[in-house]
């Protein structure tokens, strides 16, 4: 099982509150990611980081912000939560893996996911 | 547009039975295809990963197949157990960037009844 943790697991807050979702990993991975997932829908990448002091926005526009001050820590912040932010937020980190397939070396990015934070904004 | 489509959307089977889940994709250039299992309220956990030169990959009772020519994959589960109840997500990675961007399907929700 991957060593990637998210807190809190569940959060119910009122509109306008500032919140921070925590994500930490103990595997020393440089790359980390935040995904948003609604029930029955695919995961959407909202933020990613290649390493310390590196953060980028993902495919899905999000009003959240992230920071990467330490390798193991990648928190996500919402300055003013709204009901439209209600969703599941999944954090992931990745490592490069090399495999030999049919005599050729293949490199791929294996992602490990945290348990997620279920956010409800009233 | 790079897409990953899964079918069926949901499936109910009896314990001990086999089932097959389908995944079609249009992601290009293709790098690899993964199947994840996601229990309710949890993060996805990797089951298998295949590159374009691999046709089949097994992990216990899970067997994934890949046809890179038709851009189709399947996940076969044999002798299903109650603990197999989960969402199974097909994920395809491209070779277009160092990020190795992942494209997620919406998943097949499998329910195994006793």
Structural class of the secondary structure composition of chain A? Answer: mainly beta
The helix content of chain A, as a percent range, equals under 10%
Determine the mean pLDDT of chain B: 92
Number of strands of chain A: 11
Order of helices and strands of chain B: EEEEEEEEEEE
**What's the N-to-C terminus distance of chain B?**
41 Å
Structural class of chain B: mainly beta
Query: What spatial form of chain B do the alpha-carbon principal axes imply?
Result: globular
Give the overall shape of chain A, derived from the CA principal axes: elongated
Number of separate strands of chain B: 11
β-strand amount of chain A: over 45%
Low-confidence stretches of chain B: none
Distance between the termini of chain A: 34 Å
Q: Gyration radius of chain B, to the nearest Å?
A: 14 Å
Tell me the greatest interface.
A-B, 28 and 25 residues
Explain the overall architecture.
The complex is a heterodimer of chains A (122) and B (114). Chain A has 122 residues and is mainly β. Chain A contains no helices and eleven strands. Chain A has strands at 4-7, 10-13, 19-25, 31-37, 44-51, 54-57, 65-66, 76-78, 87-101, 104-113, 117-121. Chain B is mainly β and 114 residues long. Chain B is built from no helices and eleven strands. In chain B, strands 2, 4, 5, 9, 10 and 11 form a six-stranded mixed beta sheet that branches. In chain B, strands 1-3-8-7-6 form a five-stranded antiparallel beta sheet, with no helix packed on it. The model of chain B has no long low-confidence stretch (mean pLDDT 92). The A-B interface holds A 4, 6, 31, 40-45, 48, 90-92, 99, 101-102, 104, 106, 108-116, 118 and B 4, 9, 31-32, 41-46, 49, 51, 53-54, 89, 93, 99-102, 104-107, 109.
């Amino acid at each position: 099982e991957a060593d990637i943790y998210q807190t809190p697991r569940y959060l119910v807050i009122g509109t306008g509150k500032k919140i921070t979702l925590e994500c930490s990993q103990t595997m020393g991975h440089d790359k980390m990611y935040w995904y948003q997932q609604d029930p029955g829908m695919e995961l959407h990448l909202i933020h990613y980081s290649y390493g310390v002091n590196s953060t980028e926005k993902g495919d899905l526009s999000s009003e959240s912000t992230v920071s990467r001050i330490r390798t193991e820590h990648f928190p996500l912040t919402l300055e003013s939560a709204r009901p439209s932010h209600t969703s599941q937020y999944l954090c992931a980190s990745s490592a490069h893996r090399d495999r030999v397939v049919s005599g050729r070396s293949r490199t791929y990015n294996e992602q490990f996911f945290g348990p997620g934070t279920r956010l409800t904004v009233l | 547009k790079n897409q990953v489509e899964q079918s069926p959307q949901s499936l109910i089977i009896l314990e001990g039975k086999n089932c097959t889940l389908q995944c079609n994709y249009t992601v290009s250039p293709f790098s690899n295809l993964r199947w994840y299992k996601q229990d309710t309220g949890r993060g996805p956990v990797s089951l298998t990963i295949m590159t374009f030169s691999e046709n089949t990959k097994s992990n216990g009772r899970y067997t994934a197949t890949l046809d890179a020519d038709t851009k189709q994959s399947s996940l076969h589960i044999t002798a299903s157990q109650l603990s197999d109840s989960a969402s199974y997500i097909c994920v395809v990675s491209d070779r277009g960037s160092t990020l190795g961007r992942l494209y997620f399907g919406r998943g097949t929700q499998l329910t195994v009844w006793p």
